[in-house]
Design a protein that fits this description.
- The strands form 3 sheets. The protein has a 4-stranded antiparallel sheet with strand order 2-5-7-8. The protein has a two-stranded parallel ribbon with strand order 1-6. A two-stranded antiparallel ribbon has the order 3-4.
- The chain has helices spanning 3-9, 17-24, 28-48, 119-185, 191-225, 252-262, 264-284, 304-307, 332-398, 404-439; strands spanning 13-15, 54-66, 69-78, 85-96, 99-115, 234-236, 290-301, 315-324.
- It is α+β, with helices and mostly antiparallel strands.
- The chain has 10 helices and 8 strands.
- The longest helix is centred in the middle third of the chain and has 67 residues, at 119-185.
- The protein has a single domain, classed as Outer membrane efflux proteins (OEP) (Up-down Bundle), CATH 1.20.1600.10.
């Protein structure tokens, strides 16, 4: 039965590094960032709507019934001889019969804003810059999510490989126990060597059992990050990097310009500066008057016929031009303009600080790659030396020239060397991925 079939039987899910990259770029933080970008896109459309004609239609049908009313009115007293008012007033009360009045109208109104001090254009520019900034933040979040997914993948892969190392140690300890028992039974060894070998085997089994818990934790961490069920038993497949050739780190001068040109975060912050500048212009537009025009077709009448039946009657046309100018707003416009200026300064500070942070990250991660590369070479040599030392110790033990403690010491040194080499290579891959994320992608003209 091949390895993949065995994983299926055990209910585990194999997953590759490339799958983790793709799934991480679509995980929950990335999707939320994408929603922010989509909202920014719609906000740009909303801002553009202000420069387009606004058309509205309305219709009202009202029937008003007024019941019999008791009405009191003033009435001047007229001199019957002269026919002139005497100056006196009488109050008369009479009953007014019920009435029915219809109020019906229909209208179509078109309005167009002609000038508002440049507010609409600057709002469009502001929304466009915010959209571009949101797009940059989305790409930045995708890279951040991918880096974290890759890190968790290597943590799982390292835990799996560490378990294999510990299981190999268990096997070596079992072999040592078998040899110690065989030598004791042949009268060439001590009982204490066999007992010590048995204790060593038990300790190694305990370490292997505990490592399974580490694997389970790494499985859960990766599964949750890539939006899999938290109980999913993922099995990281060999990415082909840990045991491959150690990559040469790029030069600092090769990656500095790449980071400035390609890092999505810097592009997003540049667009935030543009958005802040446009926001200041929007605030200043309130100092200017607003000019707009309106055209309206109106039909009014007291009955449904002919308002809604005969288009040749009851027509009215209205054309209008309006100017509105807020001459004094209680210094609100001045304060809003000042706020816009502060937003510009804040955006520039954030951009400059991000540039310094990226410069620092480049040096940090590049140095990390260099150190881990050197450490990986040393760890590989150390593992080979430890392996040779174990072979020599076992040969001496078989010849009766060494005891179990000597073999055990060699076994532990080999286990530590293998784990150290594994962790160093994983740290190297994570450091290289961190460097790529800081740059914004692989260095131009370089390949890993």
């Amino acid at each position: 039965m091949n390895a993949l079939a065995l994983l299926i039987v055990l209910g585990s899910t194999p997953i590759t590094l490339q799958q983790v990259r793709e799934l991480s770029r679509r995980n929950t933080p990335a999707l939320l960032s994408q929603m922010d970008y989509q909202r920014a896109v719609e906000q740009t459309r909303i801002s553009r709507s202000a420069i387009l004609p606004q058309v509205s239609a309305a219709a009202d049908v009202n029937e008003v019934w007024v019941g019999r009313q008791l009405v009191t009115q003033q009435q001047q007293v007229i001199d019957p001889d002269t026919g002139r008012p005497t100056g006196e007033i009488n109050y008369i009360t009479f009953a007014q019969r019920a009435t029915h009045v219809g109020r019906h109208d229909a209208s179509v109104t078109l309005s167009q804003l002609f000038f508002d001090g440049g507010k609409w254009w600057n709002q469009i520019a502001q929304s466009g810059a915010q959209e571009d900034a949101a797009a940059g933040q989305f790409r930045e979040q995708q890279m951040t999510s991918e880096l974290e997914g890759v890190r968790r993948f290597y943590v799982l892969y390292g835990a799996q490989r560490a378990l294999n190392v510990l299981l190999d140690t268990v096997k070596r300890s079992q072999d040592q126990l078998d040899r110690a028992n065989a030598l004791y039974e042949a009268g060439r060894g001590n009982k204490s060597d066999a007992i010590q070998a048995l204790v060593n085997l038990g300790n190694d089994r305990i370490a292997a059992v505990k490592q399974r818990a580490t694997v389970a934790g790494a499985q859960s961490d990766l599964a949750v990050w890539i939006a899999f069920p938290g109980a999913e038993e993922l099995v990281a497949q060999d990415p082909g990097t840990v045991d491959g050739k150690v990559p040469l780190p790029p030069k600092l001068e090769e990656v500095e310009s790449d980071a400035r040109d390609r890092r999505p975060l810097l592009k997003a912050l540049q667009q935030q500066i543009r958005a802040a500048q446009a926001g200041t212009a929007v605030a200043k537009a309130a100092f200017w008057p607003r000019i707009s025009g309106q055209a309206q077709w109106l039909r009014v009448g007291s009955s449904l016929n002919p308002v809604f039946t005969d288009l040749s009657l009851q027509n009215q046309w209205i054309l209008g031009l309006s100017l509105r100018w807020d001459l004094f707003s209680g210094f609100a416009t001045t304060a809003q303009t000042a706020q816009g200026g502060y937003n510009e300064v804040t955006a520039r500070i954030n951009f400059e600080d991000a540039g310094r942070q990226i410069d620092g990250d480049l040096r940090r991660y590049l140095r990390g790659v260099e150190v881990q590369t050197e450490a990986a070479k040393i760890a590989a040599d150390n593992r080979q030396a430890s392996s040779d030392n174990l072979v020599l110790a076992q040969e001496r033990f078989n010849a009766g020239l060494a005891n179990t403690l000597d073999v055990r010491d060699a076994q532990l040194k080999l286990t530590q060397a293998e784990l150290s080499l594994l962790q160093t290579r994983i740290d190297l891959e994570v450091a290289y991925e961190s460097l790529l994320r800081t740059i914004g992608g692989p260095p131009q003209g370089a390949a890993k």
